[in-house]
Amino acid sequence: MKIGLSLLNNWGFDDPRPLVDLAVRAEELGIDSVWVHDHVFNVGHVFDRIGGKPYYEPLTLLSFVAARTQRVRLGTSVLVLPYHNAVRLAKTAATLDVLSGGRLIMGVGVGLIEKEMRAMGSPYAERGAFADESIAVMRALWSQDDPKFAGKYYQFDGMKFSPKPRQTPIPIVIGGVSRAAIRRAARLGDGWQPLGLSPEALGRGSRSCAPKLRRVAATRRRFRSRSRCRSLRPAPAVTRLAPSPARSSRARRPMRASGWKR
Fold first, then answer.
1. In sequence order, which residues have a C-beta less than 8 Å from that of residue 1 and are 6 or more positions away?
2. How much of the chain is in helix, strand and coil states, percent to nearest 5?
3. How many domains does the chain have?
4. What is the pTM of this model?
5. Which end of the chain has less neighbouring CB within 10 Å, N or C?
6. What is the C-alpha separation between 213 and 184, in angstroms, rounded?
7. What are phi and psi of 57, to 5 degrees?
8. Do the Cβ atoms of 262 and 191 come closer than 8 Å?
9. What pLDDT is stored for residue 253 in this prediction?
């Protein structure tokens, strides 16, 4: 088992520099990965937890961590794709991957807070389709010498894109526990990150969804075989520990565990 921990960029610390120090200490202790989180506005459960205190931008914080560390992997848990322009995000992620020597793990999700999503200019009802297309856009930009894409939300061709990431590809881990998230993980992800589950609940959920995951993954392998693309790779499980977000309707739990696989 590999252990990761949250850098707590979402807990309202006035000074973010100790969060970078935490990552340095985690690396010294042999921790496998450090993780950051993504909201733009302090709304919903974020406001319930920290009010108007600082919630630091995740990739900026990871850039500081990359400059102070050598080995520890750098994860997002998770980037809410409808809050981001996929082309700009692909460039930012690729740059961070190059600067860090290929240590980025991109956890991504579709988001849940409608008010925040509207403020970001994204249609809430289309967040799943937008997220799927964003993943396809980033992979095209990272992998194609002359990237071309024609989708509903993004269209481009005839332009070079750089830099390419150090990893080929940057692993994309799908966050969420809904049926749609699980199917997205099997169809599009290099791993699954179920958030806020105890180990017991995670085990029950994994057993209940395993047949569906196998069916979807088998379809994905057949499609990739016909397309002469790489097939799914087996990968180790990783556990990441972080304080559980407080909710107004329930007491705060001290820790949470989640897993991803490459």
1. 237, 238, 239
2. 40, 20, 40
3. 1
4. 0.83
5. N
6. 10
7. -65, 130
8. yes
9. 35
Which domain CATH number covers 71? Answer: 3.20.20.30
- Structure token pair of residue 187: 């169809």
Tens-digit pLDDT profile for residues 195-240: 777 888 777 767 766 776 677 667 666 555 443 333 333 333 344 5
Residue type, position 93, single letter: A
Q: Would the pLDDT of 157 be above 70?
A: yes
> Are 204 and 211 in contact, with CB atoms under 8 Å apart?
no
Where does the chain show beta strands of DSSP type E?
2-6, 33-36, 73-80, 104-109, 149-150, 155-156, 172-175, 191-193, 237-242, 256-261
> Is the bond into 54 cis (omega within 30 degrees of 0)?
no
Q: Could you please report the per-residue DSSP string of 43-108?
A: -THHHHHHTTS----HHHHHHHHHHH-SSSEEEEEEEEGGGS-HHHHHHHHHHHHHHTTS-EEEEE
Instruction: Say which residues have a Cβ less than 8 Å from residue 135's Cβ, sequence separation at least 6.
Output: 81, 108, 172, 188
Q: How far apart are CA 257 and CA 191, in angstroms?
A: 15
- Across residues 106-114, what is the average pLDDT? 97
Distance (Å, whole) CA 108 – CA 171: 10
CA distance 126 to 82: 9
CA-closest candidate to residue 7, choices 172, 252, 243, 173: 243
Q: If you search the block for the tokens 């105890």, which residue do you land on? A: 198
Domain span at residue 155? Answer: 2-261
> CA neighbours within 13 Å on the CB side: how many for 186?
20
